[in-house]
Amino acid sequence: MTLPQLIIYRHDRDRRALVTLSGVIDPATAPQVRSVLERCLRDGIALIDVDLTTVDHCDSSGLRVFLDVSRHAAEIHASLRLHHPSPQTERLLMDTGSDRLLRTTRPGGARPQRAGRPGDRHTEGAAR
């Protein structure tokens, strides 16, 4: 049995870092993600952009890392943004309500929209 593999690439520019993840984020690889993101904060990075374009799967252990690091970043006046999550990762964020806590963007800079129910404020405004 092969262990899940995750490739992590970090590129810094001034006080901003782009962290590109590729592969699977699960209990075996989540500690690596946490280590890289926390290292960014220790290095004085103020904005961490996490590119999830090539993440095949992210489970609750990966979500916990993103929530914890985002909270830590906010405490030190930094921020974490997730970019281009897969449909599976978007569902995980929305199903857990984490989309309201994490800044997430899709290609073109659009933020994912929560599916609304009739009577929801944002759904009514969108229908007009």
| Biggest beta sheet summary | 5 strands, mixed
Number of separate helices: 4
Strand order of the largest sheet: 1-2-3-4-5
Number of strands: 5
Would you list the SSEs in sequence order as H and E?
A: EEHEHEHEH
Class by alpha and beta content: alpha/beta
Distance between the termini: 53 Å
Radius of gyration over all CA atoms, rounded: 15 Å
Looking at how many chains there are and whether they match, the oligomeric state comes to single chain
Mean pLDDT: 85
Helix percent reads 25-40%
Organism: Streptomyces werraensis
Protein name: STAS domain-containing protein
InterPro entries: MlaB-like_STAS, STAS_dom, STAS_dom_sf
Question: Would you give an account of this structure?
Answer:
- The structure is a single chain.
- This protein is α/β, with parallel strands linked by helices.
- It is 36% helix and 30% strand.
- The chain has 4 helices and 5 strands; from the N terminus they run E-E-H-E-H-E-H-E-H.
- A 5-stranded mixed β-sheet has the order 1-2-3-4-5.
- Helix 1 (30-42) runs parallel beside helix 2 (60-75).
- The protein is globular, with a radius of gyration of 15 Å.
- The N and C termini lie far apart (53 Å).
